[in-house]
Specification:
Chain A: It holds the Pfam family ATP-synt_C. The complex is a heterodimer. Chain A has one domain: F1F0 ATP synthase subunit C (F1FO ATP Synthase, Up-down Bundle), CATH 1.20.20. Chain A contains 2 helices and no strands. In chain A, helix 1 runs antiparallel to helix 2. The two termini of chain A are 22 Å apart. Chain B has one domain. Chain B is built from 12 helices and no strands. The chains are: A mainly alpha, B mainly alpha. Chains A and B meet through helix 1 and helix 2 of A and helix 2, helix 10, helix 11 and helix 12 of B.
Chain lengths: 81, 293
């Protein structure tokens, strides 16, 4: 493999890697959060509203990290290197 | 490839691009290496975001086309016209359909704010409800062909987040006075040199995360829809982006909800509360307080 690739190609490769790791981490974290929230709702259905609002806030905070990865990968893609 | 495709689609190449970053990355990369030549420029979103119809219709002012400002003004004008039309004759009995619709919106927003902040948070209904309606409409405007979401630009979302940021500290100082500033020093005085920078950084990270979350979500969705649409055009099957549109309809609502929900959590964290537990940092504290009635 030729390692003297162009800078554009490196930016495409690393932007895809960036969004990949961001999506994987955020997916696992959101899965854990949703599992915990669903268990809580199944145990106490009367507190479903509070659990849901807290879960959505937590999901937003987790997802913001994936969005940071998305923004960085977009910058890597669209900047004229 | 780039030129022929863009002339087929009727979209000029050079000019306006997202994030005010320069354009034409993938096309240059395609012509530079030769391996990835065929399909890359086709799914180059720089083509799509390069030039808007506004920028080719109207003259630029100082090199700017103010697409986002025009889109915001469209939303504001439509909202003002709609509200003026619906609230032209308000009655108590035998209300009109417009007033009924406005009352539906008001009551649902009121229930939303009260469920998050308690009855004391009803005075923030004006702020939160305005933010919600504006963000929701601007998210949905991005799904209309020919339009661009104002919230898909970092300037708009940063302005909205700064409104939240200043209202947090304004209401914190107004309701608690100097006691609000004492929160920044932490609980024990000898940790204050450590806690004050941490709290200041935490406060400054709030508008950053609020704005970048909204911007990244909406812009990412738009780019995904554009890429799928152009793939479908290339494959003579222009429905590739249809499931993404449904997902975007859902996600626009979620993003508006999340923005206002976090704003309410931050604002109610700055307000004085009766049961004051000394545990945990302020960042964790106010989220629990926000969800707590």
């Amino acid at each position: 493999m030729n390692f003297q690739l162009d800078l554009h190609v490196w930016s495409v490769i690393f932007s895809s890697l960036c969004i990949m790791f961001g999506a994987v981490g955020a997916a696992f974290a959101q899965g854990k959060a949703i599992v915990a929230a669903l268990e809580g709702i199944a145990r106490q259905p009367q507190s479903a509203g509070e659990i849901r609002t807290t879960m959505i806030i937590g999901l937003a905070l987790i997802e913001s990290l994936a969005i940071y990865c998305l923004v960085i990968s977009l910058i890597l893609l669209f900047v004229r290197w | 490839m780039l030129n022929s495709f863009s002339t087929v689609m009727g979209i000029p190449v050079a000019g306006y691009s997202i994030l005010s970053l320069a354009s034409g990355t993938a096309g240059v990369a395609a012509s530079g290496t030769g391996e990835v030549h065929v399909e890359q420029s086709m799914i180059d979103p720089a083509i799509i975001f390069n030039r808007h119809w506004i920028s080719s219709t109207f003259h630029s002012v100082g090199g700017h086309h103010f697409i986002v400002v025009i889109m915001s003004l469209i939303i504001i004008a439509a909202l003002a016209a709609f509200l003026a039309y619906c609230s032209r004759d308000l009655k108590v009995r035998r209300i009109s359909a417009g007033q009924n619709f406005l009352e539906l919106i008001y009551e649902s927003l009121d229930g939303y704010v009260v469920s998050m902040m308690g009855p004391a948070g009803r005075k923030f209904l004006v702020l939160i409800g305005s933010l919600f309606i504006y963000i929701l409409l601007s998210n949905y405007l991005g799904l209309v062909p020919g339009m661009e979401a104002p919230t898909a630009n970092l300037n708009t979302t940063l302005a909205l987040a700064l409104v939240t940021f200043f209202s947090i500290h304004y209401y914190g100082l107004k309701t608690q006075g100097l006691k609000y500033l004492k929160h920044f020093a932490g609980d024990v005085w000898w940790l204050a040199p450590l806690m004050i920078p941490i709290h200041v950084i935490g406060e400054l990270a709030r508008p950053l995360s609020l704005s970048i979350r909204l911007f990244g979500n909406i812009r990412g969705e738009d780019i995904a829809i554009c890429i799928l649409f152009f793939l479908g055009v290339k494959a003579y099957f222009p429905f590739f982006h249809t499931p993404m549109l449904f997902l975007a309809c859902f996600s626009c609502l979620i993003q508006a909800l999340v923005f206002t929900m976090l704003s309410m959590a931050y604002i109610s964290g700055a307000l004085p509360h009766e049961e004051h537990d000394e545990e945990g940092g302020r960042g964790d504290d106010d989220k629990h307080k926000g969800a707590h009635k």
